[in-house]
Amino acid sequence: MTKNGILCQVNDKRVYLDPKNTDASAINFVSHAHSDHLPSKNGGTILTSIETNEIAGLRGFRMENHIQNIDDFSLIDSGHILGAKGLLFDDIFYTGDICTRNRGFLKGAEIPKCKILITESTFGLPEFIFPRIEDILKQVNELISTLYGKGIPVILMGYQLGKAQTITQLFNHWGPLYFHDSVRQMNLIHQKFGVPLTDGIGHTEAQKNGLLDKKPWIMISPMMSSRSIFLQEMKSKYGAVTIGFSGWAQSTKFSFGRKADYSFPLSDHCDFNELVDIVQKSGAEQVYTIHGFVKEFAEHLRKLGINAQPLHENSLDNFT
Ligand SMILES: [Zn+2]
Ligand SMILES: [Zn+2]
Question: What is the Å distance from ligand 2's center to 268 Cα?
Fold first, then answer.
């Protein structure tokens, strides 16, 4: 572990995993385009997927010298968001952010065999065991149905990159369907890569044309505070109710998972059981944990007889 992130030295190659800044003398692997994984400066060779490169560009980070392939390095779909990859090289597997369950267009990750596993542990506490997607869908559809029956518009909120596209796909049978402008822009990039997302009108245009006055309707928006100007307006003008989607909604302790009027646990990360499953499927002899409950999850693995240590001490430094 270095100040710049995780550095692996294999034979004559130096490999940085999601470094803060890219290193000119190393291979710099960027797992996906969430901002906490994007380097802040260019330099050296960046190994990343085409999708990650494109989304990073939209988010204001242009990657120079990016490549999709290097001999002896395999990019493995991590099922987290569009273009998210893990990296397998020389018996080491780095998960990046990972999810092994199917959600809409995202297929759960397949775990390769390795000797050393570097895994995220965002939800590495036993309290984070998420319900089945089918059960969440049933509950949310019933809730929307009740609200629609009263003519109440509904705003579905999730992280702008990843969650918002999943909920677009999972709830596209409701209409009329509108999008916060920032979500629509992100959806368009997904459509460009062949993800079948229903298109709809952005909120500025819908408002300008008086479409939001015809209630009820449904809108997909980024996760926002109820104090944001956008939500205050949607609530006061149209009486909209918010439904938020986040893995943190599962917890009784972490209130940032419940910013909305209603909250449901839907995550782009593995839950606790799925994390344990990854470790077992990998057959790794040594496990290093990063992100989230690093100490607690490593300790749990040691109780199962698996050699595991956190790579760094910070908890909760990262949850996208
Ligand atoms: Zn992420
Ligand atoms: Zn992350």
Answer: 10
